[in-house]
Every structure is written in C-alpha cells, then in structure tokens.
Amino acid sequence: MTLQRFTLLAALAVTPSFLAAQAAPGGTLPSPESIVARYIEAIGGRAAVEHFPSRWERGHVEIPAQGLTLSWESLSGGGRLATRSELPGFGTIRTGYDGVVAWSINPAAGPAILEGNAALQMRQSADHLSALHPDRYVASMQTIEETDCAGARCYRVRVTTPWGESYDELFDKETGLLRGGVRRQTGPQGDIEVTSEIVEYRTVAGVRLPRVTRARMLGMEMVTTVDSTDVRAIPDSALAAPPEIRALRPDQRSPGE
Description:
Blueprint: H1 32-42, H2 46-50, E1 55-63, E2 68-77, E3 80-87, E4 91-97, E5 102-106, E6 110-113, H3 116-126, H4 134-137, E7 140-149, E8 152-160, E9 166-172, E10 178-187, E11 190-204, E12 207-217, E13 220-231, H5 236-239, H6 243-246
Antiparallel strand pairs: 1-2, 1-13, 2-3, 3-4, 4-5, 5-6, 7-8, 8-9, 9-10, 10-11, 11-12, 12-13
C-alpha cells in the first residue's frame, strides 16, 4: 500500500465576482465555480494560498481493523513531493514526484516509475496551487446534488480531468470547506475506490489545512493525522528522485552516476 493524503484536486481560478453568487436563482444548486470560490476564501483566500511555502509534515495513520499504526513524513514544495512511511512488519515505503517523474519504492515491489493515472494523481498531490490552476487538472465540473458528508450538509461536485478521469468532491454548505470525496486511486493492484472525510482542519501559515482525515477502501478504515507541520524551505536534494529511481531513467541520472 502507499500513503497518499486526500487533497483538493479539482478547482477553478475565479474572479471575486463569483463570491457573491453562492446560490443560483430559483433554489437550484449553486454553480461549481461559486462553490470553489467560496472554498478558497474559507481556507484563507487566494493570496494566502499563492504564497503558501514549502513544508515538512509528520504524522501517523491508524488502521483499527488490523491494530496497526504507521508513521509518515512528507516534504513538499515547488510542485514536488517526497514521502516516507514506516509500516510495522513490512518496512519503509517511499513515494514522490520530482517535477518530471512520479515514483514509488517499497520492500515488495522495489523501485518503480509510476505511469498513467497513478503518475497524474501523484503530480496533483504534489501541487500546493492545484486549486488555483484549473488548466492543469480540470476539464469540467458539475454540481450533482446536495447530500450529507462527515456530519454536514454538502454540495457534491463531479470533476472530470483532461485525461478523462472523473471523481466527486463534497463541500460544506455552511462553511464552504471541503469535507471529503470519492475517487478511484490507481496503484499496483489497480484502481481502488477511496471514500474520504476530512474530520478536522487547522491553520498553518494563514491557510486552513486538513489535520485529521478518515478514509475507507476495500472495506477497511484508515485515519490519517498530521501531528506537526514545519514551514520551511526544502532543499532540492530532499525532493529529487532517489538513486534507485534515477537508475531506471538514464535521462534523469546525476553526472557521474
């Protein structure tokens, strides 16, 4: 298994004029553009998101059904990502995106270059500014219904990506915050549907970020908690693809390797 936090992967860059249009006339569902505009304001505003710095996060994942707890850390910045998690009885799992290549390393499968949906999903997860760049990740959005999620009344927005993938995100009707979603995550075993609920937010460097997320997949529940977030510049070397991955891609090797 890989550790991949649920993040907002679909949004549109919108002008302030959308902020007043939180509901369409006649009691119809609000437009996805207005829902996302409200979400951006709810987490701190466009300026705060645009200037959000690189960060180093540490946390843990609990899997109650198996009595397991694993620790993880994540380094991210500049559209790049490197994660490490320690799974008892299995070993260290590493994943990342270095701006060109999405990759994973685990004791069972060894090093691998990710391709297709797996690589595109990893690239999205690495991008702090995904909510502000619809041209990268969104072909279309539609408000589907009003429903319940994580104990709140929410709007369900269906997203279609430029590469043809569709998934749902749910936004709190009262607060405007993202409350969860449903997406098929691509991994070594194929596509697995993951249902996520954001249980708790906290504010870091002026931006509200998920602190506790509950996810369900294959009949199993996982609770991810961010224990600490350090706002700091991340060295390029920490976000580069490791030697095992560069060995699989000659064009990515460092001089002298």
